[in-house]
Design goal:
Rossmann fold, DNA polymerase, domain 1, 2 domains, two-stranded antiparallel sheet
C-alpha cells in the first residue's frame, strides 16, 4: 500500500447510509404514477449513476416514457426529506477523526444541492477539502474527471490517492484516474460486485481503512 496523501469518499453506500431516504423518495414517485412500490434492498441497487438513472431503473418496463415527468417528482420529494433517516455508517466518525491529518474529498454522482444538505446536517461538511458531484463536472463517474479535478487542484499523485466506494462505478472511476480503488463491502452493492470490478483492496468496516493506511 503506497503512502496515502488523499482519501476520496463516495457518498451513498460508502460514507453515509442513505438507503431509507432514497427508497422513500423512489417509492413516493412510483406511487404518484400508480406503480407498485419496491423494497429498499432492490432500490439501493439502482443507486450509483445519478438520480435520473435511479428512477429509470425503478420504473416498470414500458413506463420509461414517464421518466421526464417522474424525475422532478423524485427530486422535489427528496429535497424535503433527504436527511430524515440518512446517517454516517458506524465507525465512520472514527475514520474521519483518525485520518484528520490526511486531506479528504467527496466524489459522488448525487447532485450538489443534496450532497451539501446531507454533509452539513451530519456536521461533517468541513471535513472535506473539495466536494465534486454529478453537476459540478461535465462527465459523472466512472469518468475520471471528478478525481482528476480534485488531484489537479491539490497537485496530488493518483497512486497516492484512495478512492473509497461501494460499487463498480467507484472502482472503475479509480482505475480510470489511476488511483487506488478500495471497496466498501458494507455498502449498497456488496463484496461480489466489488471483487468483479477489480478493487485493489476490500474492507468490511469503515475502521478497516485506518489499518489499511497504516
Amino acid at each position: 500500500m503506497p503512502r496515502c496523501h488523499l482519501i476520496v469518499f463516495d457518498l451513498d453506500g460508502t460514507l453515509v447510509d442513505s438507503s431509507l431516504d432514497l427508497a422513500a423518495a423512489t417509492n413516493h414517485t412510483l406511487a404518484y404514477f400508480g406503480h407498485p412500490q419496491k423494497p429498499v434492498k432492490d432500490i439501493v441497487r439502482y443507486v450509483g449513476d445519478g438520480a435520473r438513472k435511479l428512477i429509470e431503473r425503478a420504473l416498470p418496463e414500458g413506463a420509461v416514457l414517464e421518466l421526464d415527468k417522474a424525475l422532478p417528482v423524485f427530486l422535489d420529494f427528496y429535497a424535503e426529506n433527504c436527511t430524515e433517516n440518512t446517517r454516517l455508517y458506524p465507525g465512520m466518525d472514527d475514520v474521519l477523526h483518525a485520518c484528520a491529518g490526511i486531506p479528504k474529498a467527496v466524489a459522488t454522482n448525487k447532485p450538489k444541492r443534496f450532497t451539501d444538505i446531507i454533509l452539513k446536517a451530519l456536521g461533517i461538511d468541513r471535513e472535506f477539502i473539495q466536494i465534486e458531484c454529478a453537476d459540478t463536472v461535465a462527465k459523472p463517474k466512472p469518468d475520471p474527471e471528478m478525481l482528476r479535478k480534485i488531484l489537479d487542484a491539490r497537485n496530488i499523485a493518483p497512486m497516492a490517492t484512495i478512492m473509497l466506494g461501494d460499487s463498480t462505478v467507484d472502482m472503475k472511476t479509480a482505475q480510470n484516474a489511476g488511483c487506488i480503488g478500495v471497496g466498501a463491502t458494507w455498502g449498497f452493492r456488496g463484496r461480489e460486485e466489488l471483487e468483479r470490478s477489480g478493487a485493489n483492496f476490500l474492507i468490511d468496516r469503515p475502521t478497516d481503512l485506518i489499518q489499511l493506511i497504516g
